[in-house]
Amino acid sequence: ASPLQAVNLIVAATKSPRAEQQAGLFTLFSNVLNALDPASFHSPNPTDKLHYHPETPAMTVQTPTNVLVIAASNGHNLQLAERFAAAARQQGHSAAVLDLTTINLPLFTPLAQVSGTPPRLAALEAQLAASARWVICSPEYNGSIPPVLTSAIAWLSVQGSDFRALFNGRPVAIATHSGGAGYGVLTAMRLQLAHL
Prior knowledge:
Elements: E1 7-13, H1 19-35, E2 65-71, H2 76-90, E3 95-99, H3 110-115, H4 121-129, E4 131-137, H5 147-157, E5 172-177, H6 183-195
Parallel strand pairs: 1-5, 2-3, 2-4, 4-5
């Protein structure tokens, strides 16, 4: 199985979507939730290192959330994340919003890594591990991913011996509310998640 399985769908929201576009977006999201069966993302081979396995000791599982909507800004993309979570709840899923801007993680650098693991990182990792599905809502910064998201991914990827363990084996939808078309950030997120 390919790591590309971790990225199932790209959902884009424009800066000023019309009401029918908004309704269509959340109808599409409803269909995505029903189609994203986490069980189909697990390899039948237990030795396959490219897939997340809930029994991995490095992952402390908190109360499971069916859908975790991750916001990589506290502006329009946080509002978009809250709307995705509300849409998921309307479909009978348990959903939570994770605002990365509220987590006090230092910028990831080799020097920061040598200084030690940030205290909030374990709780972030556990929250992500406990969710069956992710939706990542991110603005486009200079044609790419904002630093709060890339830094969080960098910190998470250096925990444990398998940097892909947390990211593989689960369905992920990506979305943006950007001033432009948002193709840069959607492409960058897709490449980042495909690598992981």
